[in-house]
Amino acid sequence: MKNKWKSYHPATLFIILTLIIILVSWICDIYGLSVNIPSTGENIRVQSLLSSEGIRWWLRNVINNFTEFAPLGMAIIAMFGVGIALHSGFVKACIRLKVGGLQKKQKVIGWIIALGLLSNAIGDGGYIILLPIAAILFKQVGLPPITGIITSYISVACGYSANIVLSTMDPLLAHITQEAALETIGYQGNTEPLCNYFFMAISTIVIAFVIYWITVYILIPALSKSQNEVLVEEHRSLSRKERRALIYAITSFAIYMTFILWLTFSPYGILRGVNGGLMHSPFIAGILFIISLGIGISGLIYGIVSGKYRSDGDIVVGIMNLTRSLGEYFVIVFFAAQMFACFEYSSLDKYLLVITSKAYSFTINDPFMNLIVFILLISIINLIMVSATSKWAIISYIFIPIFYEQGIEPDIVQCAFRIGDSSTNAITPFLFYMPLVLTYMRQYDKNITYIFLLKYTWKYSLIILTIWILLFIIWLSLRLPVGL
């Protein structure tokens, strides 16, 4: 039975989860379970998906649930750009130039971890763009491609809050914190986007070393035994024509990004928001398309100059390079999208979040231990509700007043929340990008399932959570500022 469970297709996993949600929503509806949302005062009742209204809702929205599933469109758009960059040989040329004849595995692992941790600066783009490139990079130096996907996935998911630059999450969370603090405790302080910067910047370095250690000493030895031996491709220096094509491609990317930055930060600034800021601006909203287009243009230039592309038909083939493998992804996403939509419609996520949070508030009174338990609580809640902003928009109204009464400032509470919120991202099946991660992995091994992924990712989550909490304890003990 154990082996049979491990062999279930990812689509089956989402079907089972959907059935569980339907059953639980039906039971909760029978007992009339409801909860008040602290931020709005709205009373939310768990809705049964087996009721007549629930069935009508699903039939009206089954297609929209699939087509409006945000990661689906984002993945396809990103695959256009990455696909042509891979097909034209641009990515491989960059790898051959950087990796060179040394074929140093440590260098490749380090670069992938660093890029994964920094990727939250462009939102969720790391899940879509970095994973397939990591697989190719690892294969280039003789490591199993699946190892590259897992390493990059962990770096993006578990390090989502950590960065040495301002990420897209910083202003969003800070804005929620400031509103919640003002409305609940009359807090007059100004919570800035960089209010957690010092701690998160150091966390980035610490987490990078943790991921590197686990990858080198646990993941690679384990996967090297289970995966077929990967032959290192013989290093071949770039020809003069390839070097010229690479220079043209990189130059075109630099010009393109300079132009985008000028449109964003110059006085002209048409890519900034209506209020002149970056929050909810066209630049932030379209950052994934902007990056994908830039990568695609670079791949196109490389292909034309190197002689790979001689007609528009060749270019279209390049654009289709990655999308050809989307057949299985569409199947997985269809069932995953229904699961996410049913979970949201039933309001089970909000009910469980509020009930769990309120139950916690009566446990212990020691402020220091309270923060540690709070981090553990968020790490558990994150297994069923992964959206950081959605969670924080609700529970900030519960926990900021509790901790403020114990002398803990809102920015420290936000910092603790981000630790728990990031650490378990990689192990929850409710992560929006889980279908895409499994699809990438199944391109190299058709037997890959969620259980296979969980077998290796839980160690990362547990160790990262433990080390991160220890760092937080040391930080608070030394009374260091968490940010600006």
Sheet/helix structural class: mainly alpha
Task: Please work out how many helical segments DSSP would assign.
Answer: 21
Mean pLDDT: 87
Query: Within the largest sheet, what's the order of strands?
Result: 1-2
Distance linking N and C termini: 54 Å
Helix residue percentage: 55-70%
For this structure, the quaternary state is: single chain
Radius of gyration: 23 Å
The rough form would be described as: globular
Give a quick account of the main beta sheet: strands, pairing sense, barrel closure: 2 strands, antiparallel
- Count the beta strands: 2
Instruction: Bin the strand percentage.
Output: under 5%
Uncertain regions: pLDDT < 50 for 5+ in a row?
A: none
The arrangement of helices and strands along the chain is: HHEEHHHHHHHHHHHHHHHHHHH
What this model shows, in words?
It is a single chain. The chain has helices at residues 2-6, 10-30, 52-67, 70-87, 90-99, 105-118, 125-140, 145-158, 169-185, 197-226, 240-265, 282-285, 287-306, 312-319, 326-346, 348-360, 367-381, 388-405, 410-423, 434-442, 450-477, and strands at residues 34-36, 43-45. It is mainly alpha-helical and 484 residues long. A two-stranded antiparallel ribbon has the order 1-2. Strand 1 (34-36) and strand 2 form a beta hairpin. The N and C termini lie far apart (54 Å).
Can you tag this structure with a few keywords?
about 475 residues, mainly alpha
